[in-house]
Amino acid sequence: AQKVTQAQTEISVVEKEDVTLDCVYETRDTTYYLFWYKQPPSGELVFLIRRNSFDEQNEISGRYSWNFQKSTSSFNFTITASQVVDSAVYFCALSVSGRGSGGGADGLTFGKGTHLIIQP
Amino acid sequence: EAGVTQSPTHLIKTRGQQATLRCSPISGHTSVYWYQQALGLGLQFLLWYDEGEERNRGNFPPRFSGRQFPNYSSELNVNALELEDSALYLCASSLGYSLGNEQFFGPGTRLTVL
């Protein structure tokens, strides 16, 4: 079975601080994808990034960066120079192959989310 | 391009009733997923439809069911509602089935069971 753990339930920082959101995953599959989604107060999940299990390159997109380490089964997300608009719940998710298996879910397996509060 | 749409926005039912939630995917997307986001339980996968067929379901009882229509829109039905069914139900669509396809989410339907 798959599992995603986001140990940080809530993080509060002051604007302009850097913040890292942790994500640890478990799967026996060798082929999988990891995702980060953002859920602002409006409720709609917004896709941020996707990473496949064979690509351990870190990625940077503006103030956002992601660190994928298979050795520790982690896919951490860092926001540099945080802004109030970054306040949201952030979810890490895992996708594994299981099409038609009826066993595991082919849908995304989500972590419980980290509520990020950026104070002005 | 229009995103994923869901209706209604809010739905209030009483215990034992049935609820029907609707979802229209992004044009060209054939896969539709349903998720339940209940307080304290996080986002849980409910059902996946692709090309009109139910492809897989999560760990939910049979009173959660649905279907996908020829135009790829989808309906989620929850029978014999229980208080713990109160949650935000999110629909997502993706461009066919591929492990790495991102899922695009709708705004959700807030179901309240009294």
Largest sheet of chain B: 7 strands, mixed
Q: Distance between termini of chain B?
A: 37 Å
Q: Tell me, what's the shape of chain A?
A: globular
The helix tally of chain A amounts to 0
Overall SS class of chain A: mainly beta
Structural class of chain B: mainly beta
Largest sheet of chain A: 6 strands, mixed
Order of helices and strands of chain A: EEEEEEEEEEEE
Radius of gyration of chain A using CA atoms only? 14 Å
Helix-residue proportion of chain B: under 10%
Assembly category: heterodimer
Mean pLDDT of chain A: 89
**Share of β-strand residues of chain B:** over 45%
DSSP summary, beta strand count of chain A: 12
Question: Counting H and I runs of at least 4 residues, what is the number of helices of chain B?
Answer: 0
Radius of gyration of chain B: 13 Å
Task: Give a quick summary of the entry.
Chain A is built from no helices and 12 strands.
